[in-house]
Design brief:
- By secondary structure, the protein is an alpha/beta fold.
- It folds into 2 domains: about 10-150, Response regulator (Rossmann fold, 3-Layer(aba) Sandwich); about 155-250, Arc Repressor Mutant, subunit A (Orthogonal Bundle), CATH 1.10.10.
- The protein contains 9 helices and 12 strands.
- The strands form 3 sheets. It has a 5-stranded parallel β-sheet with strand order 2-1-3-4-5, with helices on both faces. It has a 4-stranded antiparallel β-sheet with strand order 6-7-8-9.
- Strand 6 (about 155) and strand 7 form a beta hairpin.
- Helix 3 (about 50-65) packs parallel to helix 4 and helix 7 (about 180-190) packs across helix 9.
- The longest helix is centred in the middle third of the chain and has 24 residues, at about 130-155.
- The chain binds calcium ion.
- Calcium ion binds near residues 78 and 79.
Length: about 250
């Protein structure tokens, strides 16, 4: 199996197409146009016409820390009373890092900078096409999902990729056929790339504290791992010996 053949994480398309979006727009025609375009793509849309209503919804989420949460906020800047920038700042103040797409008729560079500095992720100048709005929506949702996915399970070191949840490892995109213990050793190395592991520490982590064999077992597994990973196992490029102590990835 090549890395390129890995099917998308099944949660990935689902997260993107079922995304829940909060739309804050005071102009009725634009609000309806955006709502219809988003709903046609399968997104769930909550639309409000004022900054006050948006703040009310967001504060109730902040207070309860429960559903409904949003995967994206599309925010008009020029709103009566509470403006878009204040809503954006409120979100970040609440440590809510939902992606924010600002839509605004303000076009100068400094307006864009102020919007992005307030914590927005992207900025769309009015008038815009629904096509572009949808493309930016998809991009923001995708980025968020990838960040989530990355944090949870993918590790990379040079040409090695490790999918922790799937217990799979790849070298230059080709799947490695590792035993569970070899995989666990590689996982320890990759998740702590600067750490030097003693044989005793590896035994404790991989075999458990009750292991009765001796530390030569570690050397044997390291040799097997090198045979699968290294072009020349006697000149290892990935798994280095640290004389007098143990091993590290390098
Ligand atoms: Ca407006």
């Amino acid at each position: 199996m090549m890395l390129a053949d890995i099917p998308a994480n099944p949660i990935f398309p689902e997260l993107v197409s079922n995304a829940s979006i909060l739309l804050v727009e005071d102009e009725e025609i634009i609000r309806e146009m955006i709502t219809i375009a988003l709903q046609r793509e399968g997104y769930r849309v909550t639309s409000v016409a004022s900054g006050d209503e948006a703040v009310e919804i967001l504060q109730s989420i902040g207070a309860r820390k429960t559903e409904p949460t949003f995967d994206l906020v599309i925010l008009d800047l020029m709103l009566p009373q509470v403006g878009g920038l204040d809503i954006c700042r409120l979100l970040r103040y609440q440590n809510n890092f939902v992606p924010v797409l600002i839509t605004s008729a303000k076009v100068t560079e400094s307006d864009r900078v102020i919007g992005l500095d307030a914590g927005a992720d992207d900025y769309l100048t009015k008038p815009f096409s629904t096509k572009e709005l949808l493309a930016r929506t998809r991009a923001l949702l995708r980025r968020q999902t990838f960040q989530f996915f990355n944090k949870s399970s993918i590790y990379r070191f040079k040409e090695i990729t490790l999918l922790s949840n799937e217990r799979k490892a790849y070298l230059e995109g080709k799947e490695l056929n590792l035993s569970p213990k070899e995989f666990r050793i590689l996982e320890l190395f990759i998740t702590s790339p600067r750490r030097v592991w003693s044989r005793e520490q590896l035994i404790e982590q991989v075999w458990g504290v009750d292991f009765l064999g001796d530390t030569k077992t570690v050397d044997v597994h390291i040799r097997w791992l090198r045979e699968k990973l290294e072009v020349d196992p006697s000149q290892p490029k990935y798994i280095n010996t640290v004389r007098g102590f143990g091993y590290r990835i390098g």
